[in-house]
Amino acid sequence: MALSRQTTAKITDLLREYPQGLSITDIVKKIDINRNTAGRYLENLLISGQVEMRHFGMAKIYALSNRIPQSAMLSISSDLVMQLDSSLRIVYVNEPFLNLLRVTSTDISGKNIEYSAAVLLFEDTLEDFIALLKTGISGKEWHGTLALKKGDLFYSCYITPMVLNDGRKGVSVRLEDLTELRRHEVALQESEARLRSIIDASPVGISVVLERVILEVNNRFCQMTGYSTSELIGKSIRILYPTDEDFERASSKKYLMMARIGAGNVHIQWKKKDGSIIDVLLNSAP
Questions:
Q1: Residue 270 contacts residue 277 (beta carbons within 8 Å)
Q2: CA-based torsion, 253, 257, 259, 260: positive or negative
Q3: What domains sit in the chain, N to C, each tagged with a CATH number?
C-alpha cells in the first residue's frame, strides 16, 4: 500500500522542529499514527536519504539528513537523469535532460513517458526502452548502450529500481553521453583504415615488430617472404633468418645503429618459406 504524502510531510516537519532528533516513541506521541506505521515511513525516508538514524543507548534516534538533497546533486550532474513511477509517469527530470528536450519541468512532470516530449529522443527504440523500464520497476537493474535519434546520439544507459519519496516503486534512468567518444572512435577507425590501405598499397614490405614478435605485416611483406599474414602474426621474427647467428648479428647491428642515430639500416639475408634466400635492405625505426 502506498504511503501518504501528508503523513510523510508531518514526520519531516516534526523532525525539522527537533534537529537533535527524535525516537520512534517520541514521533508516535506527537503524530497520530501507530508505531508500526511510523516504522514504515521512517524506513522509506531512510532509503530515500531524507532521514538519518543513529543509536543512543538502546533507542534509535531519527533526524533530518544533513546531506545535499539527491535532486540537487542530480541537477548539477552532466548525465541525463529521469525518475518514473510504476505507471511510467515522469516524477523527476534533471536540468541537462530538460535542456536536451527543450522543455520545462512543468511541461513534462506527471506525464506518461509515452505521451511526453521524451518520445522525441527515444522514438527509434521506444518500445524496447519501455520494456527496459518495466524490467527496472520489477526490481532488476540494466546497463547497456543506446543509439538514439537514428544513431546520431549514443548513451551509456543505467536503469535502476528505486523507491519514491511516498513509498511507491519507481525506476531511475541515467544516460551518460558517449556521442563524442563514439565519434572519435569512428574517426580513429576510419583513419586506421586509410593508413592500412596506404600500407597495403606500398611497394615496400612493411612490418611492425615488438620485442622480436611480429604484430603486423602488409601484403608486399607476405609476397617477399612467401608466408601468409596468419603464418607471420604472433611469430618471432627469427622465422625469417637462415640461422641463429644471422638473426643475432642482424639484431645487434640494427639496435646499435638505432641507439646511435635513431634508425637502423642494415643489409641482411632472409630465408623465404620455400627455403630460398633473398637479400634484404632492412630499415628500422622505433
A1: yes
A2: positive
A3: 5-64 (1.10.10.10), 70-180 (3.30.450.20), 202-284 (3.30.450.20)
Q: Cβ of 191: how many Cβ atoms within 10 Å?
A: 10
Task: Give the global pTM.
Answer: 0.51
Instruction: Look up residue 77 and give its DSSP letter.
Output: -
Q: Supply 93's cell numbers.
A: 527530470
What would you report as the CA-atom Rg of the chain, rounded to the nearest whole angstrom?
Answer: 33
Q: Are strands 277-284 and 264-271 parallel, antiparallel or unpaired?
A: antiparallel
Answer whether 51's CB lies under 8 Å from 15's CB. Answer: yes
Q: Which residue has the cell 549514443?
A: 154
User: Hey, which residues does 264 pair with through a beta bridge?
Assistant: 284
Grid coordinates standing for 55?
543509536
Beta pairing class for 80-85 and 90-93: antiparallel
List pLDDT tens digits, range 183-241: 888 888 888 888 778 787 888 998 888 888 999 899 999 999 999 999 999 999 999 99
The three cell numbers locating residue 44: 522509506
- pLDDT, tens digit (0-9, with 9 covering 90-100), for 83-101: 999 999 999 898 889 998 8
Distance CA 21, CA 160 (A): 31
